[in-house]
Amino acid sequence: MPQKDPCQRQACAIQKCLQANKYVESMCEDVIREMRRCCETHSGNSICCSGFKDSKPPESKSNT
């Protein structure tokens, strides 16, 4: 039996969040952040991370 993808839970959470929020990514920043963390740890073992490999989080806008 194939091993479960270590980041599948986070990938599903992103899809669920995006669907619930009409695909407005800013509404799902927390779940996207969790996916990035998972991919940093498991990138070699997770097919779900293939789209996150070279992806960088957007620059934070500071109010300075």
Q: Could you list some keywords that capture this structure?
A:
single chain; 64 residues; mainly alpha; 2 helices; 42% helix; Cys_alpha_HP_mot_SF
Oligomer: single chain
Classify the helix fraction into a percent range. Answer: 40-55%
Low-confidence stretches: none
Shape: globular
Query: Please, what is the average pLDDT?
Result: 84
Family: Belongs to the CMC4 family.
Main location: mitochondrion
Subcellular location: Mitochondrion
InterPro entries: CMC4, Cys_alpha_HP_mot_SF
Structure description:
It is built from two helices and no strands. It has 64 residues and is an all-alpha fold. Helix 1 runs antiparallel to helix 2. It is globular. The protein starts with 7 loop residues before the first helix and ends in a 22-residue tail after the last helix.
